[in-house]
Amino acid sequence: MTKLPFIAIPLIVMLTGCISLAPQNSDVAIAPVPEYLSQSSDKTAVNISNLGWRHYFNDPQLVNLIDMALANNSDLRLAALKTLESYKQYGVAQSDRYPLVTGQSSVDYAGQNHTETSKKYSIGATVSFEFDLFGRLKNLSESQLEAYFATEEAQRNVYMLLVSQVAQAYFNEQIVLQKLATADRQMANYQQALTFTQAGLASGESSYLDYQQAKGMLESIKVSRVELQQEQQLAHHTLQNLVNRYDFTVKPVDALQVITLTIPPNLPSSALLTRPDIMQAEHQLKASNADIGVARAAFFPSISLTGSLSNSSTELSDLLSGATLWDFVPKISLPIFNAGQNQLNLEIANIRQQQAGVEYEKTLHAAFKEVADLLVLAQSYGQQLTLQQQYLATQQTALTLSQEGYLSGSASYLDILDAQRNVFSTELTLLTLKQNTLANQVSLFVALGGGWQE
């Protein structure tokens, strides 16, 4: 048996003792956010991050649309492919930490003029390996692994945003459909008013002014209805684009409901740390730490080992029975002069780490602001809905009183038209507030980590 030179033994032992020159923790200063997002005293709050979207959205039509979007949406498929690509890149980086084995075979023909004088067959194998004494390959692999994790979080973010976008587009179209139904009812009232005043004009009970005002109200509601039809078509196009299908219609539903989120008491801002955008920024910061380790390792010697075995013979039948030649080449490379390239690379790596730290801080503060704003809006919309419903009740009472006054002669028909217009306007405002409330609840659900689980 052929014995390897004794130097191979300590080299192989050194393989398992590599060190990492990457910083253990980032030294980037991150400006803190306030400790709490909410000071709610409600004890019945649920853990939003564990609340699946199938439970949160209890509308079967909406759930079906979200299922279709998750199966067909181009952005989500692209995010999944990017994640897969990043995982394969990590595999490439990881493979550099293992020995490279290559095999080769050849036939060497020699001759003079047109006559073959000799023929030689060769076969062999080569093994090459870099001893990662200072963690260069380890940190390259670690950097790519963190990049993969960051891409995975980006995919999760696309998933959650898609769920929220489909829900909001669906609610938008449903609200417009309700506005159209309200406009149709009001248009029927105006048409009845026009018929009534037209008959009154013939009998002398109504003036020409009453007739023109009734006619103007009807024309006005027709314009509003055309605008709402346009809005409904645009909303449906948005939903089609998200679902990436065009063979469905949205059926109007009487009640649009989602679970009203009850914010946990003294909700800590640390709850934001599981958001995919923050997790993505954190992994990118960790990757920049590993890149510093790669840049530091360039200042130290690189030790590699190449070994080969080969057989050769003039006869193919004797190729494996002949003498075996071996070659063993330990190699040490030490940087001596490269015009400051290694130092510049290290400084670049440190700058990029600082950039990643700033991005993390920026993402963290943006997330805090987003949730804080959504909490303020949630409270405001709740108050506005209550007040608007009370205002609608007063307008409906005013309409009833104007109708009674007209019958008793104490009010004109113009008073009825004005009251009807006020009721219609208030109903549209109430529907818009409901639309904003639904959008706010969906955004808050996703902003606090919901929507990833089904």
TrEMBL record:
<dbReference type="GO" id="GO:0015562">
    <property type="term" value="F:efflux transmembrane transporter activity"/>
</dbReference>
<keyword id="KW-0732">Signal</keyword>
<dbReference type="GO" id="GO:0009279">
    <property type="term" value="C:cell outer membrane"/>
</dbReference>
<keyword id="KW-0449">Lipoprotein</keyword>
<keyword id="KW-0564">Palmitate</keyword>
<dbReference type="Pfam" id="PF02321">
    <property type="entry name" value="OEP"/>
</dbReference>
<keyword id="KW-0812">Transmembrane</keyword>
<dbReference type="InterPro" id="IPR010131">
    <property type="entry name" value="MdtP/NodT-like"/>
</dbReference>
<keyword id="KW-0472">Membrane</keyword>
<keyword id="KW-1134">Transmembrane beta strand</keyword>
<feature type="signal peptide">
    <location>
        <begin position="1"/>
        <end position="22"/>
    </location>
</feature>
<comment type="similarity">
    <text>Belongs to the outer membrane factor (OMF) (TC 1.B.17) family.</text>
</comment>
<protein>
    <submittedName>
        <fullName>Cu(I)/Ag(I) efflux system outer membrane protein</fullName>
    </submittedName>
</protein>
<dbReference type="InterPro" id="IPR003423">
    <property type="entry name" value="OMP_efflux"/>
</dbReference>
